[in-house]
């Protein structure tokens, strides 16, 4: 399988600290009485694309949401175990959660631009951080839009409403909004499932280029997509991490029967 940027294949079961963007240690998570994530331990490599696959309801969104503590918003949620971002325990009581969410950006299935101009969408987070210099904001908006492969399409209408953009453009705008904050990790939760196939391919190519900027984590229930874009793939089943290895191995020679059953479509 040809990836846009070839690089040596790492053994994700044995990453060094320097190679690790996120480390999950014995994570268990409950929503009320429901044990949604069970004994998850893994390391996610820096500057690579890691995909999470598995049946609907297996815990993919919950797991990636734990990486920027989005589950904290649900009162019935509790968890045990640790998650380290570049060695820092993100569940520590002194963790600054707003800063964490800029370092670990998130893009959802439905593009959710704010009801404001293209420019204001992209500069929103920076202005929230207190950046006021016009020049600095202009530069940040331009470079984030370029990184999200949207600049050429919008540079002449930056001050028009984001609502006029197509779905694929809105999704790239939301990616630009996250990139403007220079995240270490970008979480993409089924980012193309609301988009048409051509727009999907466009976003997949964009992801390959973004690896230089940050670590990418993508949730997808589209196995072809995982095989196409991701360097590493983690298969979850009923809240457990069943198999996690480089994507070529996972999709061609899976070790576990459950993985094989899933990738060959024996269950949906
Ligand atoms: N906020 C929540 N409150 C209660 N249960 C939830 C909540 N979010 C997810 N769940 C449950 O946790 C399980 C995993 O959900 P999710 O992580 O969304 O799965 P996936 O993304 O793999 O489809 C499901 O059984 C789901 O119903
Ligand atoms: Mg989900």
From TrEMBL:
<keyword id="KW-0067">ATP-binding</keyword>
<protein>
    <submittedName>
        <fullName>Phosphate ABC transporter ATP-binding protein PstB</fullName>
    </submittedName>
</protein>
<keyword id="KW-0813">Transport</keyword>
<feature type="domain" description="ABC transporter">
    <location>
        <begin position="22"/>
        <end position="263"/>
    </location>
</feature>
<dbReference type="InterPro" id="IPR017871">
    <property type="entry name" value="ABC_transporter-like_CS"/>
</dbReference>
<keyword id="KW-1278">Translocase</keyword>
<dbReference type="GO" id="GO:0005524">
    <property type="term" value="F:ATP binding"/>
</dbReference>
<dbReference type="InterPro" id="IPR003439">
    <property type="entry name" value="ABC_transporter-like_ATP-bd"/>
</dbReference>
<keyword id="KW-0547">Nucleotide-binding</keyword>
<keyword id="KW-0592">Phosphate transport</keyword>
<dbReference type="InterPro" id="IPR005670">
    <property type="entry name" value="PstB-like"/>
</dbReference>
<keyword id="KW-0997">Cell inner membrane</keyword>
<keyword id="KW-1003">Cell membrane</keyword>
<keyword id="KW-0472">Membrane</keyword>
<dbReference type="InterPro" id="IPR027417">
    <property type="entry name" value="P-loop_NTPase"/>
</dbReference>
<dbReference type="InterPro" id="IPR003593">
    <property type="entry name" value="AAA+_ATPase"/>
</dbReference>
<dbReference type="Pfam" id="PF00005">
    <property type="entry name" value="ABC_tran"/>
</dbReference>
């Amino acid at each position: 399988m040809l990836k846009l940027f070839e690089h040596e294949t790492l053994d994700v079961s044995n990453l060094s600290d320097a190679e690790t963007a996120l480390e999950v240690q014995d994570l268990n998570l409950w929503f009320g009485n429901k044990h949604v994530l069970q004994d998850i331990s893994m390391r996610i490599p820096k500057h690579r694309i890691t995909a999470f696959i598995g049946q609907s309801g297996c815990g993919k969104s919950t797991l990636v949401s734990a990486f920027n503590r989005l589950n904290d918003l649900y009162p019935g949620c509790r968890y045990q175990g640790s998650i380290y971002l570049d060695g820092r325990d993100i569940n520590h009581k002194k963790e600054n959660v707003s800063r964490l969410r800029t370092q670990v950006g998130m893009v959802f299935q439905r593009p959710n631009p704010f009801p404001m101009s293209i420019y204001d969408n992209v500069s929103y987070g920076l202005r929230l951080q207190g950046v006021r210099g016009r020049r600095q904001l202009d530069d940040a908006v331009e470079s984030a839009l370029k990184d999200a492969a949207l600049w050429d399409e919008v540079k002449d209408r930056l001050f028009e409403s984001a609502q006029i953009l197509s779905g694929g453009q809105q999704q790239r705008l939301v990616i630009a909004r996250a990139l403007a904050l220079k995240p270490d990790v970008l979480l993409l939760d089924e980012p193309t499932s609301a988009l048409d196939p051509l727009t999907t391919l466009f976003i997949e190519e964009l992801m390959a280029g973004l690896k230089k900027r940050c670590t990418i984590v993508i949730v997808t229930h589209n196995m072809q997509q995982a095989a196409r874009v991701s360097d590493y793939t983690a298969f979850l089943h009923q809240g457990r991490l069943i198999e996690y290895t480089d994507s070529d191995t996972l999709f061609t020679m899976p070790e576990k029967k459950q993985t094989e059953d899933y990738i060959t479509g024996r269950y949906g």
